[in-house]
Amino acid sequence: MKSLAALLGLLLVSACSTGSDLHPPIDDSVVTFNDFESGGGWSSDPAHHNTSLVQKGEAHSGRYALRVDANHEYSLTYAMPLGLIRAAKFQKLHLEAWAFMASERSTGTVGVQLLSPDYSQQIFSDDIKLRDAVKTYGQWVRISKDITLPASVTPGQQLRLFLWRADATDAVLLDDVLLRILD
């Protein structure tokens, strides 16, 4: 009986350690990490009037991933005032995620924006164009980019992160999205 309990314990520890390799350590520098198994600060963005879609069944990890396609222009959006992310001013971010493009008809852009506190004006925008970053169709590819925000950032400005289809007519998926402060 003791050997059965030891074997079950070993299996449990190995299962836990394998999954943890997919998730980064979470510390004060992490703005957001989401594998889309739960909402975690991502929601539908009324400014885009989107019908957000989280795809079940095709994911880099777990069972869920963001999806855009010919019928879904924008994914869920992460939105947060800079001052709630961190009290001290910051300018440098590192974005990484796993992207899946079904075919050459898949395009898409992972967008990062800063908006005025009332969302009425775009202050800054940067992105990862998936057509440039992903060269292999039909499999998950890690993408990343360092982003420098303008020196004039203020705590009330809204940081947004989302997946946009661009001119995609085929599925584009995004999973395991990490946004981290570098400075």
Structure explained in plain terms:
With 183 residues, this protein is mainly β. The protein has a single domain, classed as Sandwich (Jelly Rolls). The chain is 15% helix and 40% strand. The chain has helices at residues 2-20, 82-85, 130-133; strands spanning 30-34, 42-43, 54-56, 64-68, 74-81, 92-101, 109-115, 122-129, 140-148, 158-164, 172-181. Strands 1, 3, 4, 6, 9 and 11 form a 6-stranded antiparallel beta sheet that branches. Strands 2-5-10-7-8 form a 5-stranded antiparallel beta sheet. The termini are far apart.
CA-to-CA gap between the ends?
Answer: 53 Å
- How many helices? The count is 3
Give the name of the CATH superfamily. Galactose-binding domain-like
Shape: globular
Mean pLDDT: 80
SS content category: mainly beta
Assess the beta-strand content as a share of residues.
35-45%
State the domain count: 1
> CATH first level: which class?
Mainly Beta
Helix content percent band:
10-25%
Q: What is the radius of gyration computed over CA atoms, rounded to a whole number of angstroms? A: 18 Å
What is the N-to-C succession of helices and strands?
A: HEEEEEHEEEHEEE
CATH topology: Jelly Rolls
Spans of at least 5 consecutive residues with low confidence:
1-21, 46-52
Number of strands: 11
The biggest beta sheet is recorded as: 6 strands, antiparallel
Q: Using the 3D structure, state the CATH architecture.
A: Sandwich
